[in-house]
């Protein structure tokens, strides 16, 4: 039996620059690559596919507007009037999470299989929860909520719970795919490909939806004003 190695953290990448070698996190490089690719696609869409925005959209403009309106409507239903100022962040977050999973189809480890990446996203949610909590309820109203020890514990645990949930699901999917290729060897053709489509396309969409829904739920709960 051969060893089946599983690395909890991605191996750092060594880059030579100006005669000096630097060790950079693979997660950071992949994330910057994803951001650059998304930006390039956005520019292509804006200047090539939809150079002139129309009042009666068709084709790519209609598809994008439908996606944005649907997401804005969902965010607005969760945040009760705060969706107009928050939809852009949620849309960007959804793109990042889905694109991070798609890179595995290129045999690149997804950034979301790194606990430091998912923890960073969880901490952003923690910051937004408290920012909107103080903004909507004021200092007195927000501090009044902290008199409940359960709510304090919930606020502290929420980013860690979200980070571990996203990391565990994405990391587990990666292990399953690698295990299939390892077990089937030269016969790894049909089954790993089908499983790969599930774990790199459908499964990430579910995880992105869960992460976004939890983010909106925590923010809505923290920003609820008393009657």
How would you describe the overall organization of this protein?
It contains six helices and two strands; from the N terminus they run E-E-H-H-H-H-H-H. It is mostly helical and 227 residues long. The protein has one domain. A two-stranded antiparallel ribbon has the order 1-2. Helix 2 (60-79) crosses helix 3 (83-102).
Task: Give the secondary structure arrangement, pairings included.
Elements: E1 13-17, E2 20-24, H1 26-49, H2 60-79, H3 83-102, H4 115-145, H5 149-184, H6 190-222
Antiparallel strand pairs: 1-2
What are the main properties of this structure?
two-stranded antiparallel sheet, 6 helices, mainly alpha, 2 strands, 227 residues, globular
> Which descriptor suits the 3D outline?
globular
- The whole-number mean of residue pLDDT values reads 81
- What structural class should be given to the helix and strand makeup? mainly alpha
* Main sheet strand line-up: 1-2
Summed up, the domain count is: 1
Q: Element order, helices and strands?
A: EEHHHHHH
Number of strands: 2
Kindly report how far apart the N and C termini lie.
Answer: 66 Å
Query: Low-confidence spans: pLDDT under 50, at least 5 residues?
Result: none
What's a concise summary of this model?
With 227 residues, this protein is mostly helical. The protein is built from 6 helices and 2 strands, in the order ββαααααα. The chain has one domain.
């Amino acid at each position: 039996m051969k060893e089946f190695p599983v690395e909890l953290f991605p191996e750092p990448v060594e880059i030579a620059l100006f005669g000096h070698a630097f060790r950079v996190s693979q997660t950071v490089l992949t994330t910057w690559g994803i951001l650059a690719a998304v930006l390039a696609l956005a520019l292509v869409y804006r200047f090539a596919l939809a150079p002139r925005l129309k009042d009666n959209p068709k084709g790519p403009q209609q598809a994008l507007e439908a996606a944005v309106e649907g997401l804005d409507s969902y965010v607005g239903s969760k945040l009760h009037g705060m969706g107009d100022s928050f939809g852009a962040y949620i849309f960007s977050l959804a793109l990042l999470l889905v694109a991070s999973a798609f890179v595995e189809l290129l045999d690149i480890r997804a950034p979301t299989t790194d606990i430091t990446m998912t923890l960073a996203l969880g901490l952003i949610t923690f910051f937004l929860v408290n920012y909107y909590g103080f903004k909507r309820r004021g200092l007195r109203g927000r501090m009044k909520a902290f008199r409940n020890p359960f709510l304090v514990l919930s606020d502290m645990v929420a980013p860690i719970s979200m980070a571990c949930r996203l990391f565990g699901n994405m990391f587990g999917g990666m292990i399953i795919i690698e295990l299939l290729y390892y077990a089937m060897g030269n016969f790894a053709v049909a089954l790993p490909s089908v499983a790969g489509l599930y774990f790199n396309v459908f499964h990430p969409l579910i995880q992105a939806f869960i992460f976004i829904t939890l983010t909106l739920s925590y923010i809505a709960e923290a920003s609820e004003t008393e009657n």
